[in-house]
Design a protein that fits this description.
The chain has helices at residues 100-105, 118-136, 185-188, 238-252, 287-294; strands at 3-7, 12-17, 19-20, 23-24, 32-37, 42-47, 56-61, 68-78, 81-93, 143-149, 156-158, 164-173, 180-182, 191-193, 198-201, 205-207, 212-214, 225-231, 263-267, 273-276. The chain is an alpha+beta fold. It has three domains: 1-93, Immunoglobulins (Immunoglobulin-like); 96-138 and 236-254 and 280-295, no CATH class; 143-231, no CATH class. The strands form seven sheets. A five-stranded mixed beta sheet has the order 1-9-8-5-6, with no helix packed on it. A hairpin with a 4-residue loop joins strand 5 and strand 6 (42-47). Helix 2 (118-136) crosses helix 4 and helix 4 (238-252) packs antiparallel against helix 5.
Length: 304
Amino acid sequence: MARLRVLRTAKATLTKTLYVDETATPSTVPVAVTVSRLDGTVVQSTTASGPDADNAYSFVFSGSDVLDNLVVAWSATINSDAVVLDNDQIEVVGGFFWSIAEARASDPSLTNATKYPTDYMIEKRMETEDEAERICSQAFVPRFAREVLDGNAQGYIRCRNPLIRTVRKVSIRQSPSSAFVDLTADQLLNVVPGDDGVLRLDGGLYWPTTGFWWGGFWPMGRRNVIVEYEHGMDYPPPDVVRGSKIRFKSMVLMKNAALPDRAEKVATSETGIVTYSSPAEDRTGLPETDAAYARHMSPVPGFG
């Protein structure tokens, strides 16, 4: 699976090599590529170029003007068998913690683009961002999320992420046998998001076509509410930027360091004992990074 994180409106090139066991194998028909939203809406459909000398195919993602999570499906025919690979993902975001140029400037050795190619640096940046936001239980840049929730017959419903910026879409199913119905623009005004990740209903919801009325509460049901929303900060705090760069360098330069960054204490003795800070679920093991992350925990105690 390939994951790609791109800025809103930015284009990006994706590549795919088709394998039979461990052998790169070309398709006998043109390789079709479809980019879809999580609800199945197609946003781009094209034919990949290739294969190149290494039997790789590529296409240019045309970009999205809204934050989104997209699924990329590659369709080919190999040895007379139709093959569909749909596990690649594109996340359209509102920003990064820092640019790759800033990352290279943080350490002289990282300026070597041959030893540390851009694709590798991008991969490690994404890993760093994911870890920081998992530890802190919040997004430090604008992101998109789509969740399928259980209605609870109450006036509020909790999403997975705090710092909800805007609610783009809400779909509700009245019963297990009925179809989902999207809230209208006016009805969405009654859905009030909060920094605590809770969506509150300010007033009721009325379906003119059925005469059904929900009096200010989310209808009870199992996986009967679908919410699409944007969440996260406008930009990461300076200490999170600084701490995440330290973490990034520890990942990229791990094999080069004589003494790991997570060393807390060095005891000079005949045996040369070194005490390390240990990574855990809620810390990286790097003291300065963990101190920065600890100052920016989720706005909801025990969130998640």
